[in-house]
Specification:
With 240 residues, the chain is of the alpha/beta class. The chain has helices at 20-39, 45-61, 70-80, 87-104, 111-120, 133-142, 166-174, 195-200, 226-236, and strands at residues 8-11, 124-129, 151-154, 182-187, 206-212, 220-223. It has a 6-stranded parallel β-sheet, sandwiched between helices. The two termini are 17 Å apart.
């Protein structure tokens, strides 16, 4: 391994390996149609209730994996709409959202190529992601990444989300010591690439972060198209 080659690459999942906005729009469109047909909540009534429900859940639960739960948002929205607790309906709504969300979720161009290059060169790969394990595992299976990723850590497995660094700590307990020599972080938010924090804690020796649309600062570089990362990886490993 040369100085520039990563020993481990940690990917965020949502809005990094695929476009979250497209998938979320498909899920919400299906939910609106369901609410209109099954609940009689038409126009902006359901959207307003769902937005309020999301805000309420996050305010109560704080920075936890369950604060992202669409099931909890749907359950709370039903209460706001005056329908009381309807577990069957809440479950149907959640499944309607995720079924349509997953149907619209596709890997960004360049992801498969980059992962294949890393696999060919024996680089350890991982996904560290907020949210609950069940839906994150479903996304990874849907995107056909199960054979491409060595380790998966969801924030539900720890007492905090990525900003707390706890999911990263868990990952580093699972990988061999050599994997921590030079770590790449690929994500869409600043907290996806806490390079300096992890160096300061002695959890990694060195690292480099790539954050969507970020300004280049310190250890972090911005990216706009995943194909850029694929080409850079190919070049570093002599495939370009």
């Amino acid at each position: 391994m040369t100085a520039n080659q990563p020993s481990l690459v940690i990917f965020d999942l949502d809005h990094t390996l695929y476009d979250f906005d497209i998938a979320h729009a498909a899920g919400m469109s299906a939910l609106r149609a369901f609410a209109g047909a099954q609940l009689g909540a038409r126009g902006s009534a359901f959207e307003e209730a769902f937005a309020e429900a999301r805000q309420n859940v996050k305010a109560r639960l704080g920075s936890t994996a369950s604060s992202h739960s669409r099931l909890l948002y749907c359950h709370e929205a039903l209460e706001i709409l005056g329908i009381r607790s309807e577990p069957v309906m809440a479950l149907q709504m959640e499944q309607e959202y995720w079924r349509n969300y997953l149907s619209a979720a596709v890997l960004r161009p360049g992801v498969s190529g980059m992962l294949q290059t890393l696999r060919y060169n024996n680089v350890v790969t991982a996904v560290v992601t907020d949210l609950t394990a069940q839906i994150q595992f479903r996304k990874i299976v849907h995107l056909d990444l199960t054979r491409e990723i060595d380790h998966i850590v969801c924030s539900e497995e720890t007492k905090g989300e990525k900003e707390s660094l706890e999911p990263f700590r868990l990952l580093f307990e699972r990988v061999h010591a050599g994997a921590r020599e030079h770590v790449w972080f690929v994500g869409d938010r600043d907290f996806d690439a806490p390079v300096q924090e992890l160096i300061d804690l002695g959890l990694i020796d060195s690292g480099r972060g790539f954050v969507l649309a970020a300004q280049a600062t310190g250890h972090v570089t911005g990216w706009h198209d995943f194909l850029e990362l694929e080409r850079m990886t190919d070049s570093i490993f002599g495939n370009g």
